[in-house]
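User: Can you help me understand a structure? I only have the sequence.
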Amino acid sequence: MTTVTHPRHSILSSDLIHPSDQEIVLGDRATLEVRLGRADHARDLREIATALTETPRRLPSRFFYDDLGSQLFDEITRLPEYYPTRAEAALLNRVADRIAAETGVGELVEIGAGTATKTRRLLDAFAARGTLRRYIPLDVSEAELRRTALALTDEYPQLAVHAVVDDFSAGHLHGLGSSDALVLFLGSTLGNFEPTAATELLGRIAAAMSPGGYFLLGVDLVKPVDLLEAAYNDSAGVTAEFNRNILRVVNRVTHGDFEPSSFVHRAIWEPEEERIEMRLASPDSQVVRLDELALEIRLERGEEILTEISSKYRRPGVESMLEAVGLTLCDWFEELDTFALALARRAPE
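Assistant: Let's start by predicting it. Here is the structure, written out as tokens:
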């Protein structure tokens, strides 16, 4: 699971009410730019139709995140079984000052920013050094970005915030700051992408960065299976409800008639791919209608829909991915063999 973004949320943001390419002044030092528009809905429909007619069936994990999905994920991050958020936050607390000293930048750009809760530790570190000037959070939830931008300009009197409503998972990446910028991609959101897609995404990020810019990537590490599976099968059932929410979102996008509450949540470790897979199993044989797609799909009893992958990493693999897209690993930080931050840089011209 992501923090994008929440890999985070285009789809149905009920708070997305402005046309694309519109900049809105929120306050003296806060602006908001909206890049999502109607064309994205047509893309969502095509993506759902393709995914549900593949074998095996799947749904892209970005469709978890309407307002309810975001709330459920926020609950997940506070569950005792769900270690990634706590581990990453602890790691940022320990190394933020070192990252600020090593990079010395004045601008932070965050992909899939959400509420920027963990990011505040980095903002504090850069502010203490006197270099912090601007923060650019990217996310698909306009309402969340509005709240975050206004809160941060209150908390940091020297900071300008330019929030961008966009969907990085759809390839919407433009200039990611100057050579005086650190681009953040935290929460192990990268793990929600298939290996080829993950490398392609890193390539788009690297291409959008300025020469000499820095990149900080958060990755969840391979660890004992019992810890991994417990994190995605919590005893309170919050993750199961989060998983089923993807069907509610798809219903609204497509005018579909999935019955989310009847589907069975499953999350298992796949050792060959070194990843958790979350799935929803159909309780009975059934036909689901998606009216806006003029599509019917027939599900057999027990048939599964893959809703999310969450790849776990080792340092050599991360370093290889970064090198493949022209980013050089500068430093590697680990929290008790649980979570890691990889600091990399695009070569200066």
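Now, to help you interpret it: The radius of gyration is 20 Å. Confidence is low (pLDDT under 50) at residues 2-20. Let me know which part you'd like to focus on.
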